[in-house]
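For reproducibility, we list the full input for the calcium ion complex.
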Amino acid sequence: MDPKSLWTITTNSAQATGETAPSGPAAAAIDGNLATYWHSQYSPAAIALPYNLTVDMFIATNITALKFALRSALSRPVKRIRLETSLDGSSWTEVGGSPFTVPQVEGLQTFTLTNPVTARYFRVIIPSTADTDGTGNTSIAELDIVRQ
Ligand SMILES: [Ca+2]
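The corresponding predicted structure, in tokenized form, follows.
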């Protein structure tokens, strides 16, 4: 079984409707499909940054890198992300190498941690409007990790 099938994801900002389903909700960022994406909430009202996407991997996992894909055509791209991990979902530690500058290219990119981390949870934080295209609206096609 694909261990990613056990994952769940939560966020503080997601567009429930208005994007082509299943895009919009955070689940579209862990569905294994680069054509679908999470989009920050813009309606009925925008949510202020920072945004976070928190993944529960269900089991403690040794992580060596984050994999990350911008939405196709680089629409509403993320420019910089912070990555934190947790064993219990309440105490968080920023990983070595974070924050990561996101190259503005399509497809899965790999951000290697300075040191591997064992964690059940990871969260990607988009700190500010300057870390988006400047509008505060932003989207992510896919999140994944590299296991040791
Ligand atoms: Ca996706």
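The chain is about 0% helix and 45% strand. The two ends are 18 Å apart (CA to CA). Both points were considered when choosing residues for closer inspection.
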